[in-house]
């Protein structure tokens, strides 16, 4: 009698667990650490189709923090059975930059599409993943495989703690939705162009939402488990380091760097739970200074006043030394919030450097230290911009789309502001 009762209870609990699970399973895995397995169809069936898929993958990767500690990526690039398949094991890319670089080096190979075989290779990679963290499998194909991917698709879906998605970057009319359904087992896990939304935008939004939730999840666990933490994490933390070229005493140039900095700061939410700002100025090597560190000011007014007070004394130009000095701002003693805040460094310069350490190498150090790097140049003085050293500017900013001018500055502000937006009224 008692046994039957117990069984009934267990049964009820199991049913409850299933219901709860179904209700709380998010569309995308919510976790600060993720395995991301990309299965990329390179059989350029539509002209230029592979380039589109490749761009999808690199664009979406911007929402990840690729590295052995956060988002660990593996990738399979495939077409037909008799064509070379490229298998990139877990953690093949240690940073977003490395991922983009390796992905951009891939080329289309014609032939058939053998997604079944690719997914089988995927299952082998899955066996090597870190099972203690959730996994997102993203199959990028328009379908129309020569072999039926249903079998390995089912096995992938059945992996614990795993979400299988498919993304089609081609014309929605020519996509084989039924096959994508076989791969994912869930209609909501298929991303395609819808109306004017690109598959990229949809995926980015999903990923961003999941990552935002992961931040709030961390908050609750942090506040409940750490008794010393009195400051809740808001998810809007940003450590912003402004690096200003003060080698020129010419007013329009260095004052424009100050004005642009102020324009940025006045559009952000400043404070110990939001954006903290540090300023570094550089000129001659020995005259590179942290003018104020991340923890010096706690209000917007103070930061604006701090920027106002900056003065140029002129000298030679040592961009590398400026970036090197800015790297001191990864230290907690300077006010940095490692693991919590997004790190952004903006270098205001025309790109000409004639002294000190190699700017490109120092910029790489900064990227390795977790900084998103941007450059801002002032063009108004010379409308044709021949006075800019674009080569150095793009070497410092690294990823394309990270080099700005006074003319395009607002789009940089908008980009950086994203981090604070959830906390702004
Ligand atoms: C695809 O990209 C490669 C370089 O990344 C380029 O050489 C090629 O012309 C592009 N193909 C198409 C069809 O746009
Ligand atoms: C798996 O990930 C967890 C969480 O980051 C980590 O603590 C653990 O060391 C990892 N295991 C292996 C084998 O890498
Ligand atoms: C340098 O970049 C600026 C801004 O992107 C552009 O307007 C200018 O034409 C470029 N100059 C050269 C010499 O390529």
TrEMBL record:
The keyword Ribosomal protein does not apply. It holds the Pfam family VWA. PROSITE patterns: VWFA (PS50234). This is VWFA domain-containing protein. Gene3D superfamilies: von Willebrand factor, type A domain (3.40.50.410). It comes from Caenorhabditis remanei (Caenorhabditis vulgaris). InterPro entries: Collagen-VI/PIF (IPR052229), VWF_A (IPR002035), vWFA_dom_sf (IPR036465). Residues 35-210, 239-421 form the VWFA domain.
